[in-house]
Specification:
The chain is α/β, with parallel strands linked by helices. Helices cover 46% and strands 13% of the residues. The chain contains 16 helices and 12 strands. Helix 2 crosses helix 14. Bound molecules: 5-phosphoarabinonic acid (PA5). The site of 5-phosphoarabinonic acid has 15 residues, from loops.
Amino acid sequence: MLEFNCKNVTESVIGSENGLNLEEEFNNYSDKIARIINELNSKKDKPGQWLQWMNLGYNEETVWLVKEYAAMVQNQFDNILVLGIGGSALGGMALCEALLKPYWNLLSNEQRNNLPKIFFLDNIDPDQINGLLDILDLKKTLVNVITKSGSTAETMSQFMIVKSRLEAELGDEYRKNVVATTDKNAGILRQISNEEGYKTFVVPDDVGGRFSVFSAVGLLPFALVGIDIEELIQGVKDMDLALKNTDIRHNIAAQNALIHYLMDTKKGKNLSVMMPYSSKLKYISDWYVQLWAESLGKNKDNDGNSVNIGPTPIKALGATDQHSQIQLYNEGPNDKLINFIRVKQFDTTLEIPKIFEFTGIGYLGGKTINDLINAEAESTKVALIDYQRPNVTLTIDRVCPYDLGQLIYMLEVQTAIAGELYNINTFNQPGVEQAKNYTYALMGRAGYEDSANALREKMAIQ
Ligand code: PA5
C-alpha cells in the first residue's frame, strides 16, 4: 500500500522562502486539478490522446495471453534476453531488479525455482553485446525483441546480430527462440515477424514507450521469470481507482504533481531527485528519470508559445548517495525537490553481530542493518529540513508486485497531471525523434537523404 507524506515542503517546516502554503495552494488549485483529472479520464479512450496506458490495469486479456505463453515455454529456456531501449527496456529492468531475488542470474536453478535467468541489452556498446552473446548458450535462450516503432536503430541492429547468430546455431528452428513485442500492424519488426513467423505480442495503440511497462512490454518478461503479474496489475488497478478522486486532498498523484510544479515555478526548484532507500528499487530512479525528462522537457506549450520548460530529474540511491550527493543537496543551491522512497518492511532482518564491543563501532553490534538504513533515511530527511530543503516521501509496505504496481502507476499519473499544469504535450518526444532521424540519415537509411545532406553540412561547420 502506497503512502505519501508531503509535510516537509510546507512553510511551517522549511520556512516561507522555500516552503509552500499547501492549504492555500490546494484551495487555489482544487478546481483546476479536478478539471485535469476529469479530462484525463474522459479523454483516455479517444484515439490519438496517448492515454491508453490508463487502461492497462484492466487489460485482463494481455495478462492471460502472456501467462499462457510463459506456461507454454516454461522449462524450454535457460535464459531470457530482452532487446530494447528507453521505454521498451527501463520499466522491465526496474521491476525485474526490484521483484526478483537479488543476484538472480547468479543463483542456481534450484534457487530460481527452475525459472530462467534474464538479461537486458539496452545499449549498443559492441564490447557489451559481444561479451554477453559469447557467454549465453543461444540454443537455450529466448530472445524478446521489443520496439513499438519496429525500427529503432539500436534495438534492430542488436536483433540483426542476435538473429544471425541464432540462425547459425539453430538453422530454421531459430524462430522458436524469438518473441517480438511491437505495434499490431505497423513497422518493420511487425513485417519481419509476419514473414519469419515469430510469436508476437502487441504494444497497444496510444501507449507511448515510457508508459508501456504494464503492457506486454513489461508483462511478458515478468511472466517468463515468474513475477506475479496479476498482483502487479491489481496494484495498478487499485491505484487507478484511487486516483480517479478529483479532490486534491485525496489524490496523491495530483498533490505531488502540484508540489513539483509550484516548487519549480514559484520557488526555483526545478530539479527533481528520486532517492529510494532500497537497492532493489535502484532502477526505479532510472525509469523515473526517463518518464519525467521525456514527458515534461518541451520547447513549446499547447498554445504554441516557446517555453523551453521541464524540471530536470536526478537519480540517487539511499544510503549510498549520502556519501556522494547529499553534501550538494544540503549545502549547494537550494534548487531541488527530493523524492524519497521508503520501504516499511524488508524481506530480511539482518542483525549486526555484537563484536568489537570495546571499539568505536561497538554501538552497531546488536542492532540490525534495517535499523541502520532507517536511521540514515530519517537523519538525511532531518538534515535537509535543517537546511530548509523540500522533500516528500513515498512509502510502500514491501518491495512486492502489488506495491510496485501502485507506485509506478501513481508516478505515471503524476507525470500526466504535471504535464497539464505546465500546459505541454506530455506524450510526444520530438527531441528524441530528431536525434533518431539524424542517426537514420547518417547510417544511410532510404528516405533520409535530405537530412543526411543537411547533417553533413552542419557537421562540417562544427
Ligand atoms: O518513451 C519513448 O517513447 C521512447 O523512450 C521509446 O521507448 C524509445 O525511443 C524506444 O522506442 P521503440 O520502442 O519504438 O524502439
